[in-house]
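# step 3/5: fold
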Amino acid sequence: MLGQELNNGLHAPVLPRGGHRKPDIVLAAMAVATEREYGLFINGESTEPKAGGVTELSEPATGEPLARVALASEQDVDRAVDAARAALDGDWGRTPPTERSRLLHALADAIQANRKELAELEVRNVGKAISSVKAELHQGVENFRFYASAIGSIAGRSNPIGGSLLFYSLKEPVGVAGQIVPWNYPLMMTTWKLAPALAAGCSVVLKPDSATPLTAIRMAELAGEVGFPPGAINVVPGEGKTVGAYMVKHPGIDKIAFTGSTETGAEIMRLGSDSIKRLTLELGGKSPNLVFADADLGDAIPSSVWSIYYSAGQSCEARSRVLVERPLYDEFVSRFAEAAKSLKVGDPLESETQMGSLVSQEHRQKVHGYVGRGVEEGAELVTGGEPTDGNGAFYPPTVLAKVDNSMAVAQEEIFGPVVTIIPFDDEEDAARIANDSRYGLMATVWTGDPAKGHRLARRIKAGTVGINMPYTAFPGIPFGGYKQSGFGRELGLDSLELYLETKSVIVSTSPKPFNPFQL
């Protein structure tokens, strides 16, 4: 979901002045996650759950034990909400914008300084290639820097209404933000969620997925080390059906920001309706990648391969439907399949690895089931399609050709390294097939005709459209979906607004006694 390489240069840590000063940050050693247990992070400290349990995590790539992590209960959510509310009414709520900005920059510095530890934690917890994780980590740092700078844009308006009345508006934090982060991008999505909420002055109760919580917990610890006051950031790993649902219904949480499946997003809308909960939903996708006969295949093929396989297909905006103009179809399928077969799949901690494992054996079985279903529906299995032997959750880059857009493999989100290649006849046909989906998150167009690219950008129903480039998400550029891919936006100034309330104030400036019956 990004297009940046890791910047290996270190920034000097920026520490807060005043009451929250902490010791200097030092460069972390490589993490040995099996030598520690991870508690909940509530009110500025690691704590055991009141009534929850402990989960044993294994590394997806090896099946070996990884770490023990506390799981929150509803009682723990109550504790986290109380801490967040106290922070909002206390030290965090009184922190001026300039101090919030400096704290966000300090947290960015801390993440950068500890990038080796965080990268290893993410790789070992999620199974994806470290080359991808380094880029995600770099974007996470830049997310905090963007919103640290964007704090200066938070401002109301003022103007005379007429006569002796003056109007001005105030921007205030929406309150306690409940944030639910998925398992596929736990580190980067945590930064997507935390940065705008903290910039706006909200306090946060963050729920990472119970299977992939390690980097979220570690980032909360770093936030405490650089001076964020207790309660500003609270982390409660737990199951979505229990802890997540309780957060959505909790009267002390003012807003929910969720990234995950469309089905869960629909349930969140139902659960949050009684309290008119403010919602931001970034949901599923089945994103199209349109390749026209006039495209530069030297760019289009490797970029199309990257667009589906860079995170083993476990990405909401992965371009899993490749639409190819019919005269180019056979050549494209052949060259794409060869490029897919040449990808280095293996140890996610090796720098040369291009695709790591899936997140679990169970998820791999689900992906494999979709491949079998596609073949049954009439698709041609060109390459891949067989789980890799061993204890890890590896699955090879898989190509399905001769796919019709009505097939389940073209309509349903597989969330794995499986691409469907679909022919189209002309520009009209391409737009029709691209939009024939309940999703509308991302699309990419490859063409040598700039006007055609811009025409399709207007016609395709998606939150982001790339023309002759595969990247999807950058700090400052709004990211989100149309249709059942959700609503609200991440990353841009639009996201900052979603954590703010607007209060209108109307003042009489008349020197005379105010009598509304004589207006």
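# step 4/5: annotate
Residues 130-150 form the longest helix (21 residues).
# step 5/5: archive (pending)
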